[in-house]
Specification:
Structural class: alpha/beta
Shape: globular
Distance between the termini: 11 Å
Order of helices and strands: EHEHEHEE
Strand content: 25-35%
Largest sheet: 5 strands, mixed
Number of strands: 5
């Protein structure tokens, strides 16, 4: 299965390596093909327009580059409920599944 990995931390003082390493290991164990990794350091409270990598991920989702988005936690996709629902709804409408490592959620 072709997947996208999305990693986000909120500040420049935080390091995303632990999230990245764990998600890449998960993809390898699951035999998922990682087509791209989207990494950013930006507060989840920022609107989608201010989140360059999330915008790139959504654009690539519309282009059907992958079938699933793999994240450390759903709050990486959106910190506010409104923003999270918007992102998840768009992915659902595109028939793109989401796997959240921390919550153990797989929409497949």
């Amino acid at each position: 299965m072709r997947v996208a990995v999305y990693v986000r931390v909120s500040t420049n003082h935080q390091n995303d390596e632990a999230q990245y390493d764990e998600l890449m290991a998960l993809c390898e164990r699951s035999d998922w093909e990682v087509v791209d990794v989207y990494r950013e350091k930006v507060s989840g409270t920022k609107g989608t327009s201010e989140r360059t990598e999330l915008n790139r991920l959504l654009r690539d989702a519309r282009l059907r580059r992958f079938a699933k988005v793999v994240v450390w936690s759903v709050d990486r996709l959106g910190r506010s409920m409104k923003n999270l629902v918007t992102v998840l709804s768009e992915l659902k409408d595109l028939k793109i599944n989401v796997f959240s490592f921390k919550q153990g959620i797989d929409t497949e």
